[in-house]
Every structure is written in structure tokens, then in C-alpha cells.
Amino acid sequence: MRIRQQSWWMGMCGLAGATAVAMGAWAAHGMASRLPPEAVAIVQLAVQYQLWHALALGLVVVLAQRAPCSRSLCVAGWAFVAGLWLFCGSLYLLALAGVKALGWLTPCGGLALMLGWVCLLVHGVTASGRGWRNSQPDPGHNDANIG
């Protein structure tokens, strides 16, 4: 995985986190008087998913620094980015603009988010060839050298 790709993902992580906080604040303070409660609830759901998956994308970047050639991390990163846009974006469109025609994107985004988590699981199980069978630390690994 290239440094440029990791930087792009970290940028997306920051953008998703910042917009999630902004949307959450707006939902809590400014939106309630302008939109029906159902729309506010949809925005709050999108905010929660967006914030958690922004953090997951940041985790992918951190893990990719230790395993830059991991295919599972590469797929996880792209799956989280796609899932954030599709799942959260379609919920925002539904709540704020009443666009129901793109409702089919929500489950597609949900599947992408799940794929991201499954890829993190695969990476965790297969990283350094140890998997779950041998939980003993690698004698050649020194966490003090991270950085």
C-alpha cells in the first residue's frame, strides 16, 4: 500500500470525523425545529455510523503502516470509504432532501461497511502468520521500535 493512499485515507478519516461532529451538532441544536423527528433520528443514525467508521478508517491507516502490503487492509480501507459515502450519504439525502429513490444505496453501503470489518478480521487472523492458534508474542517483534 502506498503512502499516498494512506494519506488519502487519513484525509477521508478526518473529513468524515469532522463532518460527523458538525452534522451531530446541527441535529442536536438547529435541525430539530426545522425537520420532523423522523428525519432528525435518521441524521443521528447516520452521524453515529459515520463517526465510528471514520475511526475504523483511521485504524486501517495505522495498521497499514505496520503491514503496507496487506491486501485485506487495502480492501478494508476502500470498503470503509465506499460504505461511508453510500450508507451515510443516502441517509442524509433521505432525511434532509426527502430523496427516497436512492434508498437502495443504504444497504449497499451497509454491506461495504461490513466488508471492511470482515477484512479487518481477516487481517487480524492472518497477520504475521500467527492467527488465533498461537497467541504467544513473536520473539523477534519489539513494540518499542514502532514509530
UniProtKB/TrEMBL annotation:
Domain of life (superkingdom): Bacteria
Xref: PANTHER family: TRANSMEMBRANE PROTEIN 256
InterPro entries: DUF423
Protein name: DUF423 domain-containing protein
Membrane topology term: Multi-pass membrane protein
UniProt keyword list: Membrane, Transmembrane, Transmembrane helix
Positions of transmembrane segments: 43-63, 75-95, 101-125
Source organism: Pseudaeromonas sharmana
Localization terms from the record: Membrane
Protein family (similarity comment): Belongs to the UPF0382 family.
